[in-house]
Amino acid sequence: MRTRDLRQPHAGCGVAGARGVHQPGWGAIFGVPPRVRGANWLLAVACCLGGLCWAARAESRPPNIVLILADDLGWGDVGFNGRTEWSTPRLDRLAAEGVVFRRWYSGAVVCAPSRAVLMTGRYGIHNGVVTNSADLPRREVTLAEALAEAGYVCALYGKWHHGRPRAGEASYVHPLDQGFAEFRGFTNARHAWEQFPTQLWFGREQRPVQGHANALFTDWACEFIRAHRQQPFFLYLPYIATHFHIQAPAEEVAEHVGKFPERDPADPVYATYAAMVTSLDKQIGRVLDVLDELGLAEQTIVIFSSDHGATFEQGNRGASAFHDSNRPFRGGKRSLWEGGIRVPGLVRWKGRIAAGGETHVPVHMMDLFPTLLAAAGIQRSDLALDGIDLLPLWLYGERPPERTLFWEWRSEGYQQLAAMRGDLKLVICGGQPPELYNVETDPGERRSLHAEYPELTAELRAALDAWLATEVPEARQ
Known about the structure:
By secondary structure, the chain is α/β, with parallel strands linked by helices. The chain contains 14 helices and 17 strands.
């Protein structure tokens, strides 16, 4: 029998990149890369303390927020998570200028529920969106609505993903109904498969367009930033890469042709997938360049993540499987193993968040809502949020209280449940025996500990059952 209490955080949980040197306080949460030593370490601490000074000054203008979301992008598809077959220099630079979250978790394993969690700060069983065809109930307060009521101008350029109209609704809930003053892009998920669309929504009107969808979204995003530079803004950029169709600009694909053994050299699917990632990186770089040009980088929080893990569905044409996009994790989209829910995650806030850090503290997509409200100085006690304010973690490296996180995927023939507390994760697949993993020491979830620790397994299962009992009726409509 092992003597280590599995309920305690793994010894290496707080630090990565520090060569085994554990620092108290800030350094114990955010790893200190080898380059951040001596005077540079003092500078990093000063940046962190600068956040304290900022809070004390209570600046009149809250920070701008740029939230960038990839679609079906795997944890292992980006350079800052170890990808070497192609480069993502703009994302890597963004990571170096901010904090990388090694255990950033999606809210769900398919698009609609994941985005609903992000927009509401609430689990799907509480906001009513648990399937890919469910529409967000109009009563839900979105992040955009909360920010708009506090004086932000909010825009969405990209994929919204509506569901079937709810009972009593003539149509689906539109982003313009949910706090966004400007919207251009896709509302329908299947329409969003088109990397080179012929028409897109401009508000509530469809208009003809020409070009690469993600480039168009970036064009409009840059115009929005320029137009609203004098006021606080929330820019939500849900790009459609790397969701199928597997297509990318020809000049981008040409940069990768010949690098991979294609099944059909005339149809270089694997090169095209790589091109989708590198093209996405360049579009993100364009947004960052505008922030720099206008002197807004220090006034703007930039967040990057993906809605869930990469897919192995037919429409992906084997690209994510070939590239092992979710490595080193097991599973992918539509599964509750780490490959389905652990996604790339980083935050940059120049002058507020110390650059070059990383953390293994588990964070959840629903935490963005309360954290960004806190960063903006907005108090909303009327919202029943499931996420927690992680601003102290972002700014000062303060570890949040221990909590249990939950996921469910009970649609399309799947019956999967998961609960995570610290490094321990319970996974239940239908009528199969429960699986218990330490995802820090066993990120591939290969060695179940359920038989060795039956009491812990039962404890997490009881917590999961209690959580499921709080499901609202809208979730099953």
